[in-house]
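Hi R.,

Here's the chain you asked about this morning:
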Amino acid sequence: MKCDRAWLMLRRLGVLVGLVSLVGCGVEPMADLDAFMAEQREKPSGVIEPAPSFILYEPFAYAASVMRSPFDRSSDAQRLPASENNALLRPDQDRLKETLEGFDFDSLQMVGSLARVSQIWALIKDPESGIHRVKVGNFMGRDHGRVVRIGVADLAVVEIVPDGTDDGWVERPRTLQLSEN
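And the predicted structure, written out as tokens:
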């Protein structure tokens, strides 16, 4: 009997726990969320900006076929007669190349100058950080540039470059300023 009574008490306790848990589930779990949403609905709604106006695209017809190619010689240059000086002007392909002729002129920097009695040299730094001493008459750059004048803060070079004709050449002056760094 005691067993039956204990069993009955245990069973009643289980039923009571089950009822309490069911009552707890009966409370609406999202009451706070519903209250927030109701509050938001009561506020006045915002104004949505209108979509930006659409700018109509105007197509552009590019007709370059009627124009001169930038790689062809201009008609003005074709009409010019070859001058005698330009006909005789050409780089000496047989001479030995100097060290600085292996670099682009724009990659070279003048870093200083040296003077002794009547001779002046320019100190030129190549892209590989080598320092070279040049004097008037030396060559530098890939376009057959010959040093024609050396000053304290600059160096003048005359390059011989193709003029766009089959076998024509022109002289192009260039300068190299003393570098600050």
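Strands lie at 109-116, 119-125, 131-134, 139-140, 145-150, 154-162, 169-177.

Let me know if you need anything else.
M.
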